[in-house]
Amino acid sequence: MISRYSRRQLIYSAAAAGMARLAAPVWSQSPTFTVKVDMVVLSFTVTDNKGRYINGLKPSDFRILEDGIPQKVSTFAEGNRPPVQIMEDGSVRPFQASETGDETRGGISTDAFVGTNVFVLFDTSNYMYRGFVYASDAIADFVRGLDRADSVAVYTFSRNLNRTAKLSSDRNQVLQGLRNAVAGDEAALYNALLLSLRDAAKVPGRKVVIVFSNGPDSASMVAPDDVRAVAEDEGIPIYVISTSDMNRDPISTGVFRRLSSRTGGKTFFAKTWQKQVEAFEAIREDLGNSYTVTYYPQPNPNEGFRRITVEVLTDAARRYRVSARPGYRPRTT
Predict the structure, then answer these.
(1) At 230, is the secondary structure helix, strand, or coil?
(2) What is the model's pTM?
(3) Residue 81: which of 287, 309, 296 has the closest Cα?
(4) What are the strands, taking DSSP E only, across 160-206?
């Protein structure tokens, strides 16, 4: 038996080393697992029955539950605005780092929760030869249009992952890295996505990964559902823009939809440059109209998958739809 945390580390190692198989370790005795409770960062959108974003809701308009257990929200933010801290009496004040500097209990700087850390994963495999230039232009337009508070990284992949432009708020630096991207050969999408998630998980605050790919995967050594589980547990939404025909590759289509829906993201099928631009614009709107809360989970005996529910408490709640990741698994060590 392997803990979820240990399994995640093994999966990371497989993606990095290109291993064909993972051998399960042999335990000399039954292991003891300890649950590590980290701060949960949860982003979600609220729309009406016509798909229009609902803005201006307050912390008191929401209730967050894990397995039906109400959670005490620590911070709340709308869009790219600075977060506010929720006090014991329900009042709010500007978010401040703890005086002790303890990062596990609020000592992360306010800037960590302003804007979004956006990781763009660009497929430069041989599947993308025909539309390579148009795809690069669509990504460049997206980067230019991001909110000034956002930071962005551009990674490219074929058989291997290339960190073309590391996470930065300097748009010129990111675009220069993007323009240096070159086409490759086979596509190891899930390996590259897993390594991108690992990088994103190290960054505090809100983050998303955007996959721009023609699919299918032809060279990965990790399974897509293992990648999805890591994204779920780390709380990182995955958005997918696929340039392939959704009907011609039903396997990749199903995988992309699972990756996005289970992590709080969305999938777009965009064969033309115009559709790709529209997909990026839809993602940009999602990021700018999201709510983000943080909380430390209340005591819960469940060491497996914990289901998250976001309830809107306003009178119009019946007409609203909340889009959020369904839950996560706490780390075990």
Answers:
(1) helix
(2) 0.84
(3) 287
(4) 161-168
- CA-nearest of 16, 261, 271 to 157 is 16
Residue 32, exposed/middle/buried by CB under 10 A (0-12, 13-18, 19+)?
exposed
59: left (phi over 0), alpha (psi -120 to 50) or beta: alpha
Is the distance from CB of 241 to CB of 279 less than 8 angstroms? yes
Q: What is the rounded distance in angstroms from the CA atom of residue 227 to the CA atom of residue 200?
A: 13
194, β-bridge pairs: none
- Tell me the two tokens of residue 222: 């990790």
DSSP-assigned states of every residue in 48-88: -TTS-B-----GGGEEEEETTEE--EEEEEETTSPPEEEPT
Domain-wise residue ranges, the chain: 35-95+102-113+289-332, 117-288
> What are 240's strand-pairing partners?
211, 267
For 179, the 3-state DSSP assignment is helix
Residue recorded with tokens 């669509």: 138
CA atoms within 13 A on the CB side of 282: 18
Picking from 28, 107, 48, 92, the residue whose alpha carbon sits closest to that of residue 316 is 48
Q: Cα-Cα-Cα-Cα dihedral of 76, 287, 296, 119, to 10°?
A: -140
- CATH class in words for 117-288: alpha beta
234 within 8 A of 200, measured Cβ to Cβ: yes
CB contact set of 223 (below 8 Å; sequence gap of 6+):
190
CA distance to 45, 155, 238, 300, per residue, from 177 (Å): 31, 9, 22, 45
H or E element, residue 323: strand 321-323
256-301 pLDDT, tens digit each: 999 999 999 999 999 888 999 999 999 999 999 999 999 999 999 9
Longest dimension (CA), the chain: 59
* Residue 47: strand, helix, or coil: strand
170-184, pLDDT tens digit by residue? 999 999 999 998 888
Two structure tokens written together for 30: 């039954």
